[in-house]
Amino acid sequence: MDFRQVREYIGKLDQVFAVKQYVLQGGRQEGVHAIDVSTGAGMELTILPDRCMDFYQLKLNGKGLNFLSPTGIVGPSYCGKAVDGWLSSFGGGFLTTCGMDNIGVGGEDQGEILRMHGSLSNTPAEQVSVCTTVEEGVPTVRISGVMRDATLFLGDVHMTRTVVLRHGINAFEFTDRFVNVGFSTRPLMLLYHFNMGYPLLDETAQLILPTNRVTPRTKHAADYVEQYACITPPSTPFEEMCYYHDIQADDQGMATVGLRNAQQHLGVEITYDKKVLDHFVQWKMLGKGEYAIGLEPCNATIDGRADARENGSLKYLAPGEEVVCRFRVAAYQ
């Protein structure tokens, strides 16, 4: 039914397209700002402005599509500061954004001590905006916020994320715009840690990975490279594996990856701009209680910034320069 007709049946838009803002209480999630959106077609998305505008839960018809780690939601003030402290605040979620100064393992590069996967996912948003309008006859919500990576003597890079959801559609788009507002060229490392989980992910699921080439990251991963796409039941012990993929792209440079589960009647597809995110990592972690597949578009290798600098994959952002990453996420039965 066209929304112009639907309007005659409702008193408030929340009946068919709900946007709710609230603050979490209790434990290490205390004070975290959250935004829930229900599109009215079965998709529900939870956005955490205090965690880089990342996506904590994505559901379709009440079924979760992503992995949630034992840490749960951790507010920025409780995040560990050690080089590997990222793990103690990694809640999983549908998306955890990594960068801007480092992705992958922590360490030192040119005198800077860098945390595992950087500090971006623990950065709260400023200038948060939630705006619901009717665009071309369709109720639409635009949610945006600004994350700043600023340190005296090291530079100032801003990231603006804008998420767009529409009534009646089980898909959404988001755009990340990175701008160097400082006066020195800075490394820019980005990794989008999409985490597939149960019930979408089980041993009956199938990866959507149109790959031209598979490269194991470690010797352990190399031992199982022929089974990179094989999804097994949870087991323990299970040692994680990572594989680099050269994902196929269309004529516009857009690539699509995902996961489908015919038995659960669930599927997710993620479309991204491979011209900007020219690397891709598959994270395979099928341990008991740690059961996840990571689909991770990125712009460099993941053995730390010093290694990326040496192998030539490290990207830079000059003063005044900007980089834009565009995504579309679709869920289906």
From TrEMBL:
It comes from Solibaculum mannosilyticum. CDD domains: Aldose_epim_Ec_c4013. InterPro entries: DUF4432, GH-type_carb-bd. This is DUF4432 domain-containing protein. The lineage of its organism: Bacteria, Bacillati, Bacillota, Clostridia, Eubacteriales. GO terms for molecular function: carbohydrate binding.
